[in-house]
Design brief:
Blueprint (H helix, E strand, L loop, with lengths): L3 H4 L3 H4 L1 E12 L5 E12 L3 E5 L6 H8 L7 E11 L5 E3 L5 H10 L1 E5 L12 H12 L5 H14 L16 H13 L5 E5 L7 H18 L2 E5 L3 H7 L2 E6 L2 E7 H6 L4 H8 L2 H4 L2 H4 L11 H8 L1
Parallel strand pairs: 3-8, 3-9, 6-7, 7-8
Antiparallel strand pairs: 1-2, 1-4, 4-5, 9-10
Helix pairs in contact: 5-6
The structure holds adenosine-5'-triphosphate (ATP).
Pfam families: ABC_tran (PF00005)
Membrane topology: Peripheral membrane protein
Subcellular location: Cell membrane
């Protein structure tokens, strides 16, 4: 029976923060690659959307394309990406150029890329590197406030503020990646795109950072596009998951629905390729994070 609740559009449609429509990207050359083909999706405000799919299916190209970071031979051949600000305005990212686009990227949409922690400048202190974001984007901010904010940011991601004086080589990989996440959050963006942000880290550190991301998302309300080929990880942290294959989204659904009732053959194969997902359901719920997605019957299965 349809209730008033059922009639309501899903949250991501009712309150979108990013709308991607018919987005296509080619890499031009003797053998042109159609890396992203007519992708449409809507990211809801505060939502974690997982983007899964095997290596080379176009996940990163989509992320770089949407944020206009692609360089030739990449060419956006169709579509648009529109950001809907919580302040009430919408902007087609294609209409932004140069300084506007750079400002927009830190301010409204920020990114954490795989291996980004290795691109930190080794001879500049952590403080100076974070402070630089404020000096550039918030020039009116006073020095004392900048330093205070740098310390707050580090603490937000679980790094002691005394580390501000350290240099990148003095921090562990996990700490450096936390610092990248802190930097991406510096200007309170409404969307964060994370491309394999924890892949290079050991599983314990990876787990800590993922918990941190989900906690901060609840606290600060930003939306995340989380890209990885690690489907079990996505099932734990995502509200919805889009599965990509050969440049196209073949399935997009609520994470739990996708896990329990995959519709596309490729999604089924992807799920089956992770042994831990084919065992008892308790194997999949590696932490308590996803417990609230389970029905009572599922809870009994996990408990037994
Ligand atoms: N600079 C480039 N020039 C030509 N082709 C490219 C370039 N970068 C990526 N491609 C191709 O575009 C397709 C999509 O690649 P992309 O890196 O977006 O996939 P991905 O799903 O993010 O992979 P991974 O998980 O390995 O990062 C692949 O066929 C890849 O070979």
């Amino acid at each position: 029976m349809n209730t008033a609740m059922d009639a309501r559009p899903p949250r991501h449609e009712a309150d979108p923060v990013l709308t991607i429509e018919d987005f296509s990207v080619d890499y031009l050359g003797a053998n042109t690659t159609h890396a992203v083909k007519n992708v449409s999706l809507t990211l809801g405000r505060g939502e974690i959307l997982g983007l899964a799919g095997e290596s080379g299916c176009g996940k990163s190209t989509l992320a770089y394309g949407v944020t206009r970071l692609l360089k030739p031979p990449a060419l956006i051949t169709s579509g648009s990406a529109t950001f809907h600000s919580r302040e009430g305005f919408s902007v087609d990212l294609a209409t932004l150029g140069g300084a506007d686009l750079r400002a927009f990227r830190w301010d409204k949409i920020s990114m954490v890329f795989q291996g980004a922690m290795n691109s930190l400048n080794p001879v500049i202190s952590i403080q100076a590197q974070i402070e630089d974001i404020f000096t550039t984007h918030r020039p009116e901010m006073k020095k004392a406030e900048r330093v205070e904010r740098c310390g707050d940011l580090l603490e937000r991601v679980g790094v002691d503020r005394s580390r501000l004086k350290s240099f990148p080589h003095e921090l562990s990989g996990g700490m450096r990646q936390r610092m990248m996440i802190a930097m991406a959050m510096a200007l309170d963006p409404q969307v964060m795109i994370m491309d394999e942000p924890t892949t290079a880290l050991d599983v314990v550190v990876q787990r800590e950072i993922l918990d941190e991301i989900t906690r901060l998302r609840s606290e600060l309300g930003f939306a995340v596009i989380f890209i990885t080929h690690d489907l079990p990880l996505l099932l734990e942290i995502s509200d919805r998951i889009a599965v990509m294959k050969a440049g196209e989204i073949v399935e997009l659904n609520d994470a739990y629905q996708l896990y329990t009732n995959p519709r596309d053959e490729y999604t089924k194969r992807l799920l089956a390729s992770f042994p831990s997902l084919t065992g008892k359901r308790g194997d999949f719920i590696r932490t308590g994070i996803a417990d609230d997605r389970l029905t009572e019957t599922d809870q009994e299965v996990v408990a037994s």
